[in-house]
Amino acid sequence: MTITLIVNEAEHRVAADPETPLLYVLRNDLKLKATRFGCGQGQCGACTVVMDGKAVASCDLPVSAAAGKTITTVEGLSTGGKLHPLQRAFIAEQAAQCGYCLSGILMAAKALLDANARPSEAEIRAALTDNFCRCGTHQRIIRAIQRAADEVAT
Amino acid sequence: MSETPVNAPRKLPGSLEANRRLDRWLRINRDGTVTVFPGKVEIGQGILTVFTQIVAEELDVALERVRLAPSDTSYSPDEGITSGSRSVQEGGIALLHAAAEARDLLLQRAASRLGVSLEQLAVEDGVVTARSGGAITYWDLTSEELLAREATGDIAPKSPKEHTLIGTPVPRHDIPGKISGAPAYVQDLELPGMLHGRIVRPPSPGARLTAFDEAQVRSMPGIVEVVRDGSFLGVIAEREEQAIRALNRCKRIAQWHEISALPGTDPRYLLRADAKTEVISEKSDEAALARSKRSLEAEYTRPFIAHASMAPSCAVATHDKGAFTVWTHSQGIYPLRTELTKVLGVPERAITVIHVEGAGCYGHNGADDAACDAALLARAVPGRPVRVQWMREDEFGWEPFGSAMVVRMSGAVDGEGRIVNWTHDLWSHGHSTRPVGRDGANLLGAWYLEKPVPAATPGNPPLPAGGSHRNAIPLYEFPNQRITNHLVLRAPLRTSALRSLGAHPNVFAIESFMDELAAAAGADPVEFRLRHLKDPRARAVIEAAAEEAGWRKGGKGDGARGRGIGFARYKNVGCYAAVVVEVEIGNEIAVRRAWAAVDAGLAINPDGIANQIEGGVIQTVSWTLKEQVQYDAQRVTTLNWTDYPILSFAEAPAVEVTLINRPGEPPLGTGEGAQGPTAAAIGNAVFNAMGVRVRDMPLTRERVIAALA
Ligand code: FES
Ligand code: FES
């Protein structure tokens, strides 16, 4: 079956079983490797993408349910060769250890900032409820999201 | 090759001793770049950035010129395993000296080309200038033979006073790529014609596959091969989701004979098991003992805990014309290669192991096993790469866990509030079943083959670093002490190295018991520790952490909030760390804030150290408050994140790190420095808040309530 997806503002037609989780279509058909597998059960947030403005887990979402929706992945964060404020902030705060969790966290943060430009620390923490970081980079990540919000606001 | 010296070669620093050729470590390229060949690997600790910093410093070139070659058994130095916070001491020190020697060789060439003496030369970003005029670059001076020689050990690296890059918070080299979506991990590797594999793991350890109707799987869409070798079962498909669907069908139709018999989840089963008992430290002073006024005993436990990496293990392998290539996030490419020879029945020269980063592993997880799985599947489809991705339940169910442990303490204080007697008995399984095993193969898949290669006898790293007994010998000075290691080699579940090994439970016990004795002596916990410590560096971190936290002498918690401190020198030879935490006890126990003070000798990258310590504290809060692997009489039942909750963003504490830099001292790793102190600080803070002692990890609200009753 051929399914049409809009990912990072480009239209893609993919031949895949409609039940295939969106994650594998992004990674293996579209070669967008930033969205990552962590659990396949919607529990860890490693595979988070933004779909129609909302952060969703792509690992247990059938690709058919994403057809025609607007999807953004980390590859689509920067525009015209310019890093997104979130990306700049993560570099400025050195907010990574292994970094495996970051793609999902960046997308959850993007959905948050798009909806709420000045989130409080508690709101940032709440927006990351579905994202885990095993390395313990939490405090740097929270600071980076705050910094990005400050930058966008000023 | 250089000539073999007549006398035995002198001992060289760090891993340079075992890998003496300079060109194994670095290369000066004609195009204005420098290539570094590290043997230690990136596991999220930021070590590769530190290596570039070291090399740029010693060579006097800009950081941007330094490239990193992936670790690969075809050319990289053999540095064994990346573990134990030893990467700076071993790999970093080797690169420091290798780069210093390379600089000297370049300067000698420059001196002869420019016709001046060495003293006339200065270097800036690879441009060598003579005071009398004239200049030449490293890139013009270099040649193949320049570094094709053994290190001499004669050239001293710069003195700390001359450092311009070492000691500065150089940003991590890998973050820009990782936040921009560039492929970064072995999971992202994609080779032409690559197939997707999954392994059908048994339901419980040691189970035998008794019936399996292959035809029901072969007929599924996209299936290329079903690999069955004894009780090792795997599927290979064109597409990833097809492999997963085949895996799920296999799970439904395969029948197994299960044999495992697991003990209860209370670690005290260890007390009844067969153990090898060894006294590892003993001191006696009858006169001091006679002064005992108050004696105490206490028992502390930790359950099995999981590494629980964010990314289940993964590997890619090809088998072509009898030769294997394996891409892996293993912590030791050479030991893995040796282990694979036993399973694949080919010599080392027929196996190339290439390191590609994985997610943070925190010790020995499924990385090596996935590599073995990929090689076993690749053998069935010659010429085509196979990517094996473990599922979440594979990682939880089959990774080697950090061992359950029991620690029994007893001690006595005299009338002056000084400890006069101290005993520490610990029970644990071994803490290393890494490749290479002496008498078997430490690779999961190998144990289930038709002709199995059984697991090696579990190991336990010897002192001074130690395994189960890591940090069991206190740094405090006591007139009487006896430390006894009861090692239970037969483990019901697979156990191996988990970040800090036995240090987490041992320091939890030591530092909790220090507080219990302090309370018995009516002393303040900080002052009580200092009373028993001579080492000025140990005292300094305790004082710094207390000061940063605004420690109030004799301060009491308010029934809901409290503070506690913990201290250790990691492995008794590594970095010093003291941690103060503040807990708040409501519906759950929460750690709100933590203050850590660390002395890691010469601090090469202060921000990298802070990052490691912050992460170490936060991960340990998770271990100590929440984590326990669950199992029933036969099977591991922790299979997903709901079964194994870890600390969330809502729960993560704010951590402040104070770094005591000691430029005159050798640099020490910090990846595992915070675990023991943090665990103990939490237990001590709970006591400070509520007046009750919880001695069993995880420290849960239920256990606090039980202790109150
Ligand atoms: S991989 Fe999708 S939530 Fe974990
Ligand atoms: S940085 Fe490693 S999991 Fe978050």
Q: How are the SSEs ordered, and which strands pair?
A:
The complex is a heterodimer of chains A (154) and B (709).
Chain A: E1 2-7, E2 10-15, H1 22-29, E3 48-51, E4 54-57, E5 70-72, H2 85-92, H3 102-115, H4 121-127, H5 138-153
Parallel strand pairs in A: 1-5
Antiparallel strand pairs in A: 1-2, 3-4, 3-5
Helix pairs in contact in A: 2-5
Chain B: E1 26-28, E2 34-36, H1 47-59, E3 66-68, H2 87-114, E4 121-124, E5 127-130, E6 135-137, H3 138-141, H4 175-178, E7 195-199, E8 208-211, H5 215-218, E9 223-229, E10 232-237, H6 240-253, E11 255-257, E12 276-283, H7 286-289, E13 292-302, E14 314-320, E15 323-328, H8 333-344, E16 351-355, H9 367-378, E17 386-389, H10 392-398, E18 405-414, E19 419-428, E20 481-487, H11 503-521, H12 525-531, H13 536-549, E21 561-569, E22 576-585, E23 589-599, H14 606-626, E24 654-659, H15 675-690, H16 701-708
Parallel strand pairs in B: 2-3, 7-17, 15-16, 19-20, 23-24
Antiparallel strand pairs in B: 1-2, 4-5, 5-6, 7-10, 8-11, 9-10, 12-20, 13-18, 14-15, 14-17, 18-19, 21-22, 22-23
Bound molecules: FE2/S2 (inorganic) cluster (2 copies).
The site of one FE2/S2 (inorganic) cluster has 12 residues of chain A, from loops.
